[in-house]
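Example record

One chain of 331 residues, shown exactly as stored in the release files.
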Amino acid sequence: MEFHNNTTTHSNHSDGTSYSSQHYKVILKWISFLIFLGIIAFNTLVIVLLLSRKKKTRMGFFVTNLAISDLCLGLFYVFPELVFNKFGVPWNTYFCYIVYAFLSQWAVYASIHAIVVMSIDRLYVIVRPLSSASKGQKYRFGLASIAWITGAVLAVQYAVNIKSSKTFCYHFIPYMEAMIYIDATIIIIIPIIIIVICYTGIIITIRRREKRGFIPASRSEAVSTDEIIPKDRVISNAKIKTIKLLLAVVCVDILCWTPIFVDAYLQFYANIKAGLIYNVLYTFAPLNSFANPLVFLIFNFKMFRSKKKKIDSHLMHMNTVKSSLGSKRHY
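Predicted structure tokens for this chain:
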């Protein structure tokens, strides 16, 4: 989401004071580099951890989908900005028109909408637990594909409005003011509305079940109360944990993307030039793709411990085998 020519070499602060851009460009360049490395490393780690698990869960599937979209955002959005605009590598025409013009915006939209898809799935799981349990891979892939298809359709408007040369590549949209409203609506307003509706439904459903108890009517006749209540409470706690995880991801996403739109509005309506503040916000906007995998890893720290135990036990087994073989040869 760029709202100015990002190849500008000298700008002004929002308060009108001038500054030498070189010092800030170097700082922002290396910050952007660290963000890029974090996006690639942590999202790859999440994908590997989830795909290597024997027990596949629906939440794990949607978290993997989010991690893949965040990884694409790092490769197609952050990487071109870093290499060509911050490190000054000459633009390649094909890279500009294919990767930066379309794929970069596609990744941004897909990453945002992947969070919305997760919220919708959590609502479905809480409100209709039995129905959601019967859904298979077609449901999961179908719901996840909505984020990617919607992102691809919305990215077309950027792909057809692109200007490039050896020194620059940027989206030039004649109706830029309207585009700010469109992007703010697609990236911030609509996702927030959908997520608020989902969380409202989740909270209402959980409150109702707390009042009624955890015993399902269809199972209470077959199994005793003492056996069902603890089990259902465990399931409920697990679902609540995933809801908290998703809420943290949503908050990070809003905190990262909202300031850049606020600054863009100020540029148009307060005649404020794009300066240091905007460049800082523009650099930190993709930080949500860096934070999303960290949130997941923090909430699922036990996964690391279990993986570490498996690796340690495997290494101990290998060392035992090697030592036993060595002793036999010596004998």
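Notes: Strands lie at 162-164, 169-171.
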